[in-house]
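step 4 of 6: structure.
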Amino acid sequence: MADMEKQYNWKDVESRVYKAWEESGYFSPENSTSGEGSGQFSTIMPPPNANGRLHAGHALDMTLKDILTRYWRLKGKRALFLPGADHAGFETQVVYEKQLEKEGKSRMEMDRESLYKGMYEFTLENKQYMEDDVRALGASCDWSREKFTLDNDIIEKVRLSFVKLYEDGLVYRANRIVNWCTKHQTSLSDVETESEEREDMLYYIEYGPFTIATVRPETIFADVAIAVHPNDARYSEHVGKTVTVKTPIGEQELQVIADDYVDPEFGTGALKITPAHDGNDFEIGKRHNLPMPETINAYGKLTERAGKYAGMNIAQAREAVVADLESMGLLKKKEAYKHVVPFCYKCSRVIEPRIMDQWFVKMESFAKKALEALDSKKIDFLPGNMEKIFRYWMENTIDWNISRQIVWGIKIPVWYGEDGAIHLPKRQKFLLARHGESEANRDKVMGAQNDVALTDTGKEQALELAKSLKSAGISKIVHSPLSRSKESAQIIASELGVSDIEEWSDIAEVNAGEFAGKPIEGKNVLEAALESKDGEKLADLTKRAQAVIERMRAVDTEGTVLVVGHRSFTSVLMSVWAGRNEKYYTADRRRFTFENATYKELEVLIAPKGEGLTEETDVFDTWFSSGQWPYLALGYPDSSDFKTYYPTDVMETGADLIFKWVPRMVFMSAYFTGTEPFKTVYFHGMINDAKGQKMSKSKGNVLSPIELVDEFGADALRMSLVIGNPAGANMALSKDKVKAYRNFTTKIWNAARFVSMNWDESLDVWNASLSAEQQSLFDEFSAAKKSIEDHIQNFRLHLAGEELYHYFWHTFADKVIESQKAAMMGEDSAQKASALKLLGTLLKEQLILLHPFMPFVTEELYQNLPFADKKEFLMIESL
RNA sequence: GCACCUUUAGCUCAGUGGUAGAGCGUCUCAUUGACAUUGAGAAGGCCAUAGGUUCAAUUCCUAUAAGGUGCACCA
């Protein structure tokens, strides 16, 4: 072979090798394995938020998942690593708003459409960067299957999920106190707030015959009652009566109520009740049917109700009210008081509890489902203690607020009548079918837009299809102008007794230009069209499909619509429906199995009709969509991918998502698919800096994975992220560590270089026999290999990586190579052949074993070394 | 307050029922012979503390201490 450089130069290798892999199509499992019976491995990329660049945590995500995917691919499984991107609703909007602020703009001044459009462009741009970063790490994910949470079909399915939950009584709209962020102008769920101990003043105020203690004197204008404990003898004379209290803006009448909630030991044992601005007071207010006036508005300003304080913010109002109370002699005392305050996890502003109409998911039955999945051991948690945390949380759920008052997200599909009645969209079901066998199908020529008739078999198939659809509630049948479609439709219509038949010219088969009527020869109609001079082009097809979708949205019928179309165009229609990039239409076409007289289901939401309906403007909490990701990304409910790759094998994600994401996936999956979304959930910890400090921009200790790849190579970064990093633990990442594994890539490179330098093409190396001593060296490797594989299969990647490292460096390089040097460089050709065989075999085996961890350097060496029986890529070797 | 985690070499961390390992750092030596992005060698740890189980504990159990994380905490 050509002389190798003394050092491995990843900058020349990585992008070239990745491109070759990607273009080979071997990231798609159907291409990388031949056998159907080989089993499958699947994992879904936790959609990285499409609002920035890849960070170290993502890099770890990608690395761990890719190691598993590559390992199982080498083991011969159909291994799918499905890439995705998340619009990340609130997160992205916050990032985008910051950018707007820098430009001196505010989202409050922008209309919904331009704001959405701006964020869409912003997100797509970042999504592109993110994907480049994922490629740079060597992730062997199948880009032809990539999904985005704002793909059209995902949006529709998420909205459909909501409609189904509504129909099943599992979501409801309620006027309830929620967490409100005054900066971001949206409500937040319980997991989107953080809390912190803060020190505030506790003010004791004379309040009629009572003294009450409060940290929020500015809310007294919204007080409606004073509560005491039912057994508190001090106050029993007042209970049930009304008292008059003084405030700086005049007197107000308050009811005195008794409620168990009040702790007679705390403060004065008398509690002012402000239902609009405090969660507990709200509960008490509901129990006692109290009015709930508001004195703080959505922006955290005092309302008209506060008289002269109106318009002040909370801090100003508090100061002013306290000063006035003091001068009126009503302030009895004040003391420093430590308590825990919830705040917005993005801007750290104190959460203002606020009463709003919001949509909630009932958690009780969902939590039960999640716990059942745990009890029946359907999901393994790594590390195991995470299961306890999950369990605890599931046993203490509160209903999940899924309404967000932002524009970046999927709109909640609800309309309200003038009377406030709730109207849901209509679920319109379409069955996209293919005509029966045509003469062209029979003769294996391209039908395309040629008008060929059905064969007798085709007629029978159509009849069979009709019979199978008897209970499908078909009320309308649509066909193309081509007779194979029209004939099929007529057969079905007459069998089902459907009279509403319509011809849609734009669902005709793809125009394959000069290839129409020609023998198929391994090409399909779509591929032929793209190759042909005068056939349809992708852009034309997209346009045509979009027009069909418009028509579908306008359909008005009682039951299900059967669309009798053609194989290639219907597949394009489904790709366009899913919002797929045009370059993947042909990949999709290959994946869809549209046999004659079979169909796929498509459900579309059609806006309710009626006078004066107003559409809901709130969007879903982003976890409502990402919580459904494992099955939606795989094409739930009836795609072949869903059937093949779901449930997935492993979900690998950050420990911080134990509440936010993981439970939602578990219970949504249990509900919609009846099964768990993954068999194992593997949590990784935080990636910290070299000293174990959290990386943050303000500390300036952020290590960018992409810069590290640039400086030391992706393989080195991958190894340094994996080794010494067991499940659940945080890890410290330093440049020195990455550098150490960069040295390891050099070591591998030079060991291979040495063997290659001494290779002798004139010897029959691969048929040489090994001495007993050499055999025992080989056996030593086999033992190491077994142990390494055992570690990988049990998710102990940190140990597998470490053992690989040690075996290669300190056994293979230090011991085995040294022991064979004399023979390899000596004159005895038999001994030389034996030595080369031992070294060559061990090298090849190790490259395969190392490949999941260090894909680039191993692939490059594999391509350049004189191994026997080489595959096209190391990536598809067998282990 | 409750739960969970951590405590091992100077630093960051793996690991193990039979007195311990990595990376970096430190010290010494080696440079035409695959590799100085290297090699050879060295120093450095009663594995937080106290009990218990065991023939044997750094490893299992209990308690304590320190640190961390999460949850809940009422005016």
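step 5 of 6: annotate
 - Chain A has 29 helices and 30 strands.
 - The first strand of chain A starts at residue 40 and ends at 44.
step 6 of 6: archive
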